[in-house]
Specification:
Layout (H helix, E strand, L loop, with lengths): L5 E5 L4 H12 L3 E6 L18 E4 L5 H11 L3 E4 L6 H6 L1 H22 L4 E7 L22 H20 L3 E6 L2 E2 L8 H13 L6 E3 L5 E2 L2 E2 H12 L6 E4 L5 E2 H11 L8 E3 L17 H7 L7 H19 L1
Helix pairs in contact: 1-7, 2-4, 4-5, 6-8, 6-10, 8-10
The structure holds NADP nicotinamide-adenine-dinucleotide phosphate and ligand G4F.
The site of NADP nicotinamide-adenine-dinucleotide phosphate has 25 residues, from α1 and β5.
Length: 324
């Protein structure tokens, strides 16, 4: 009988890690999750599947921990989703962001090269690499112009992935994913901040929402749709780079309008502009061309922008009602 495939996910406690773990379990994989040590457990997003996965302690800052993890568990696929992923924090902690989000990728790749270079590798690259965009829409060949220490770190992560592919013949893939959201999104990201606030205001728990730039535009998709693209990349005969996006862009203002509108409120009565949430350098417009992923991987998003906003607002209302 064929052995089940075994995948290791770094960042399994994050938004994408939890959806990817669910997806791989449904495909019959053994799933191993790397978790970093913390003083309290942080398993909210994976509690419902905790019994089905194996959790192992390791850290992107510590290459030996990853070498040992690979030696002891022998995965056939590694998905590197771990990162300091919040753009705003990357200005306050640029060196830490570089250590984790940039050099962390080299540590994982090098651990794979040492233990078993046949392991297939996925790197969570980002549309933030396009930053001050030089082409609309952005595709794999669009030059990078990152606008934050986070974006700069992701450019490094992308190129070191390409370099290990070319230097060692590794099946190393870079998924250039545009923003993807869900009810599991961290509360500091703008979409969840808005849906959580709309729900809190509707339930009488808050009176206002303080935001930064309402005019920036993002290509927002649903995280549950995007993890399938990660997996598809590792099932191809040849490794590559793939833009994963919906192809449509919306403003933060429009997101507010829909989220508040969903609970019968007008965002203009509650949103207050606050300088603290403005960025030193902004990414004004992102919109992706995912033709390559659609043609080569056969991938396409299933969830519309309107359905995504509705799903997130309803989940936040349900969550707050349970907590009351
Ligand atoms: P997330 O929710 O912030 O999750 C990040 C994960 O990384 C968490 O599990 C976190 O662990 C882990 N982590 C952070 N530092 C670590 C370290 N030193 N060692 C081990 N683990 C560490 O991010 P996400 O939204 O799921 O995104 C997943 C990946 O895709 C990230 O690399 C992100 O930069 C990238 N990306 C995301 C998007 C998007 O729109 N979501 C788009 C493009 C690319 P703790 O739980 O312990 O903090
Ligand atoms: O939700 P955001 O913080 O996401 P951002 O910066 O686009 O980054 C996310 O997507 C990237 C892919 O392109 C990922 F690589 C990255 O890890 C992360 O998942 O901000 C979106 C926009 C920005 O233009 C920001 O200036 O919303 C604007 N914004 C306006 N007011 C705000 C706020 N963002 C946040 N977080 N909080 C605000 O109050």
């Amino acid at each position: 009988m064929a052995q089940p495939k075994r995948a290791l996910i770094t960042g399994i406690t994050g938004q994408d890690g939890s959806y990817l773990a669910e997806f791989l379990l449904a495909q019959g994989y053994d799933v191993i999750g790397m978790i970093r040590r913390s003083s309290t457990v942080n398993f909210e997003r994976i509690r419902h599947i905790q019994e089905k996965i194996t959790l192992i302690s390791g850290d992107l800052l510590d290459e030996v921990s990853m070498i040992n993890m690979l030696r002891e568990n022998r995965p056939t696929e590694v998905y590197n989703l771990a990162a300091q992923s919040f753009v705003q924090t990357s200005w306050a902690q640029p060196v830490f962001t570089g250590e984790t989000t940039a050099l962390g990728v080299t540590r994982v790749l090098d651990a794979i090269r040492i233990v078993d270079p046949d392991i297939r590798f996925y790197q969570a690259s980002s549309s933030e690499m396009f930053g001050k965009v030089v082409e609309v829409p952005q595709r794999e060949s669009t030059p990078f112009y990152p606008r934050s220490p986070y974006g700069v770190a992701k450019v490094y992560g992308h190129w070191i992935t390409v370099n290990y592919r070319e230097s060692y013949g590794m099946h190393a893939n870079s998924g250039i994913l545009f923003n993807h959201e869900s009810p599991r999104r961290g509360l500091e990201f703008v979409t969840r901040k808005i849906t959580n606030s709309a729900a809190r205001i509707k339930l009488g728990l808050d009176k206002e929402l303080r935001l930064g730039n309402l005019d920036s535009q993002r290509d927002w998709g649903f995280a549950g749709d995007y993890v399938k693209a990660m997996w598809l990349m590792l099932q191809q005969d040849q490794p590559g780079d793939f833009v994963v996006a919906t192809g449509q862009t919306q403003s933060v203002r429009r997101f507010c309008e829909l989220a508040f509108g969903h609970v019968g409120l007008d965002y203009r009565d509650y949103v207050v502009l606050d300088e603290r949430f403005m960025r030193p350098a902004e990414v004004d417009l992102l919109v992706g061309d995912s033709s390559n992923a659609r043609e080569v991987l056969g991938w396409q998003p299933k969830t519309s922008f309107e359905d995504l906003v509705q799903m997130m607002v309803e989940a936040d209302i349900a969550l707050l009602k349970v907590k009351r």
